[in-house]
Amino acid sequence: MTFDAWASETFDDSFRISVKVRQTLFAESSPYQKVEVFDTERWGRVLMIDGLFMTSERDEFVYHELLTHPALCSAPAISRVVIIGGGDGGCAREVLRHPEVQSVSLVEIDRLVVEASQKFLPSIGTAWDDPRLEVRIEDGVEYIANLPPASTDVILLDSSDPVGPAEGLFNATFFAACRRALKPGGVLALQSGSPFLMPKTFRDTQRVIAESFGCVEPYFANVPLYGSAIWSWTYASDQATRYPKIAQRWGSIAETCKYYNLDIHDAVFAAPTYVRRLLR
Ligand code: SPD
């Protein structure tokens, strides 16, 4: 008799997505969460945290390119970037493709995520040795609260969903601290959940960001591993509207992108009708 091993993420106790596992490469618990890396047939290596799929070798490019490039290809300046979370290194990899970026602080609360990713997901975190990157193992909420005012061009929130250690990243106090840490005109971008699978969380997140930022625009794409539903990210700045895209920035990353391009930059901001109604 053979046993098939599956890794599963359950949404609201009513919907489950499962991935067939060839081998468990890593499974340990930190004081914060359980961290697992699986080798799978369809998705390549997969990172799971506390039973939630975080990223996979096959589809991570969609998530990481969209978290980074809409902000970095339009913010007025991008020399100083802060990433909160992002311990797998995928977001930092995309940020560091931009030659204008001079320094990146990646602030991850859980050392275990960084260590497991460096060892078992080297194809995702390809920029760990970039001299512009500083990795800090500390609480992102405190880090942002302690940043000097107006010190940062872009803040990227690469978190898991708002449960467990990521919960403190989705509230008004945190977004107000981000606004304070950003230079005038600076841009915040974050993953903001699925409007289809978690409409209330999505809507509440938009509202709470709008308490601190004048321009708050969600954008959308499918990340197949995240329940195969539409996923969202959110772009925020202190302006009234989003900045126009900067073609010259795109030019310097065009060869490496698998998802993002200047047409996608505009297209992802088109909201389906049910999402517009949700946000009314
Ligand atoms: N439902 C899972 C959402 C996870 C978003 N963050 C993933 C981290 C990848 N760097």
Describe what this molecule looks like in 3D.
There is one protein chain. The chain has 280 residues and is of the alpha/beta class. Helices cover 28% and strands 32% of the residues. It is built from 9 helices and 12 strands. Strands 8-7-6-9-10-12-11 form a 7-stranded mixed sheet, with helices on both faces. A 5-stranded antiparallel sheet has the order 1-2-3-4-5. The longest helix has 13 residues, at 60-72. The N and C termini lie far apart (55 Å). The mean pLDDT is 95. The protein binds spermidine. Spermidine (SPD) binds at residues 52-55, 63, 86, 88, 90-91, 158, 160-161, 191, 226.
What labels would you give this structure?
32% strand; 280 residues; 7-stranded mixed sheet; alpha/beta; Spermidine Synthase, Chain: A, domain 2; 9 helices; binds spermidine; Rossmann fold; single chain; 2 domains; 5-stranded antiparallel sheet
CATH topology of the largest domain: Rossmann fold
CATH architecture of the largest domain: 3-Layer(aba) Sandwich
The end-to-end span amounts to 55 Å
β-strand amount = 25-35%
In total, the number of domains comes to 2
Uncertain runs with pLDDT below 50, 5 residues or more? none
* Rg of Cα set: 18 Å
Short précis:
With 280 residues, this protein is α/β, with parallel strands linked by helices.
Secondary-structure map:
Layout: E1 5-11, E2 15-29, E3 34-40, E4 44-49, E5 52-56, H1 60-72, E6 80-85, H2 90-95, E7 103-108, H3 111-120, E8 133-137, H4 140-146, E9 152-158, H5 172-181, E10 182-191, H6 199-210, E11 215-222, E12 230-237, H7 247-253, H8 262-267, H9 273-279
Parallel strand pairs: 6-7, 6-9, 7-8, 9-10
Antiparallel strand pairs: 1-2, 2-3, 3-4, 4-5, 10-12, 11-12
Bound molecules: spermidine.
